[in-house]
Here is the input.
Amino acid sequence: MTLILALTCKDAVVMAADSQATEVQGGNVLAGVRHDVEKLRQVGPNILWGASGSVGVIQDIGVALEEWAAANPEKLNDQARRLKPEFVRVVAPVLRNAYAAYIQVPGRQPNPPMTSLLFAGRTAGGRWIMELEENGGAEFKDSGFAAIGSAFHFANVAAAMLKEYSASTRELMHGQILALRILETAVTAAAFGVGGALRLAVVGPDGSKILDEDEVAVVRDQLDGWRQAEAETLEELVLRKPEAAMVPGPPEPAEVATDNAVPGEKNPGPGVPVMVKNADEVPQA
Here is the structure.
């Protein structure tokens, strides 16, 4: 099982993924094993991709993409609209062959080799994200965010909660922090199948790069500082100053001196009827 996401920032695209692979034999989840794998890959100098589904199918797709890139170096920086049909032509036959060769074993839970892909690139000066679905159909994600894998719905919720930060207008480091936060939130919420070391990759004006563990640690430190600042801000705005969260009430009525006030005693205050015989009898300030 897998979680892979991508988001656009000001002049780049960031991808993030978990690294846990889960192997289940015969549909028995209790007998499953897990191990770490690299799920973010490069094709050419300006494109990243990742896939969710059958490991064997993903391996075959990787070989097909490498062969395509080696045979078509002039296309590696094409506009996204031209790359889309190229990727479909490369990937669809691999999916078709895998589906045709699938055998449902009697007495075992179905485990079809359905596989989907997520591409992210910065080619011909433009940033883009494209999902290639299990059926070979492809679409660009104009919202600037996409997620695939078993925990994709958690990632979509986490991304929606951070929408006000407008990732597409932020610098690259901001985009990496946002992507890591979305990924961590989704992995924490998911009950099964995703986890392990969290990975980041970027593609910007200088090309694509998969971050190493030390570089991811720098982003995580920044994320921890952001979370701490949020907690302190909440405490400052609400917990230490609860009046800041209260709706102000109507102003208190002005106190009026009355002729029934007795020196040394509390003024009856507003709302107490007082007989005034003459205006001259009301003390003036």
Remarks:
- Residues 3-212 form a domain with the Glutamine Phosphoribosylpyrophosphate, subunit 1, domain 1 fold (CATH 3.60.20.10).
- The two ends are 81 Å apart (CA to CA).
- DSSP finds five helices and twelve strands in the chain.
- The first helix runs from residue 55 to 71.
